[in-house]
Amino acid sequence: MIERAARLIAIAAAVLGVIVLIGAALSSNVQPDADAYWHAALRLRDGGALYGGPLGDETEIYRYAPWFAFAWVPLTYLGQGGAYLAWRTILVAATVVAIWPLLRRPSAASVTLAVLVGGLLISNLPAGNVTPLIVGALVVGVRSRAGPLLLGLAASLKLFPLVLVAGYLAERRWMSAVIATLVTAALWLTLLFFDLPLYLRMGQPTFYVGGISLFAVSPILWLPVALAAAAVVVGLAVRGSRWTWLAAGAAIPLAVPRVWLPDAAYVLIGLVILPALLAGRGTPEAARG
User: Fold this and answer.
1) Is 6 exposed, middle or buried (0-12, 13-18, 19+ CB in 10 A)?
2) Confidence band, pLDDT 50/70/90 cuts, at residue 125
3) CA-CA distance, 137 to 144, in Å (whole number)?
4) Are 165 and 181 in contact (CB under 8 A)?
5) Distance CA 206, CA 60 (A)
6) What whole-number distance in Å separates Cα of residue 38 and Cα of residue 195?
7) Are 152 and 179 a contacting pair, CB within 8 Å?
8) Does 7 or 49 have the greater pLDDT score?
9) 138 has pLDDT over 90
10) What is the DSSP letter of 104?
11) What is the DSSP string of 113-125?
12) How far apart are CA 40 and CA 9, in angstroms?
């Protein structure tokens, strides 16, 4: 009875935490990331500069590889309201995909974790940041045949998912690591065909560093933690440890100087992979199959 009550309290606390997070996310101070995607796609559609916009206007600054803006162009024909509704629907679906592995065999721990992490991702909806889509895609496919391509696409939007290449290295999937890195580099290099000087001029003055990261508290505090996280990931990868994926996912919110709450969801990637690895389904041959 006591154990059951403790489980219910844990789940209730998780739900309450999610409500608080979503309430905070609905603050009028939120600058929607979707605005940056929308305006970049509009500029492309209308023949303007991809990385243009009023200098210093956070909602106008597009900091991603060009392909993502092209992917947003069809949404511009829905009108801004329709485009944002469609985009947020995609993000909700991606969130469900990301947490679904935790709910297939529910326990108090897995349900609590799914509620908490799902809440972190859902709290992103007002801003419309791409994070849930990245996490959902990597949870489902990072160890599949398409995994290196998915990881390369993710790292072309937010460079730090490339930390997950350590998982491939731990499994001795050398070609997967190379492909993910090359896809990332190739997608970023397409920026050279656009307005690179304008990109640098637009992004540099307002590049967001901090949020809830240790860097925002103190760079002196952040540096040893970042170095320690990197050392753990590298050490595990060299040893071929099954825990590398989990360590790499956890290192992202710890070590990246530009962090916000939904980034904690990257730990899901390792949590979903780990049971298969511990069950002996984590050999390079199994991963490729």
Assistant:
1) exposed
2) confident
3) 11
4) yes
5) 11
6) 18
7) yes
8) 49
9) yes
10) S
11) HHHHHHHHHHTTT
12) 45
Structure token pair of residue 270? 């390792």
Rounded distance, CA 132 to CA 124, Å? 8
Give 270-276 contacts, CB < 8 A, sequence gap 24+.
270/167, 270/243, 270/245, 270/246, 271/102, 271/113, 271/246, 272/101, 272/102, 272/139, 273/142, 273/143, 273/167, 273/245, 273/246, 274/242, 274/243, 274/245, 274/246
CB-based contact 194:70 (threshold 8 Å): no
Higher pLDDT, 195 or 270: 270
pLDDT in tens, 9-37: 444 444 444 444 454 444 444 557 898 89
Determine contact, residues 153/140, Cβ cutoff 8 Å.
Answer: no
Model pTM? 0.84
* Residue that has been written with the tokens 């993502």 in this structure: 68
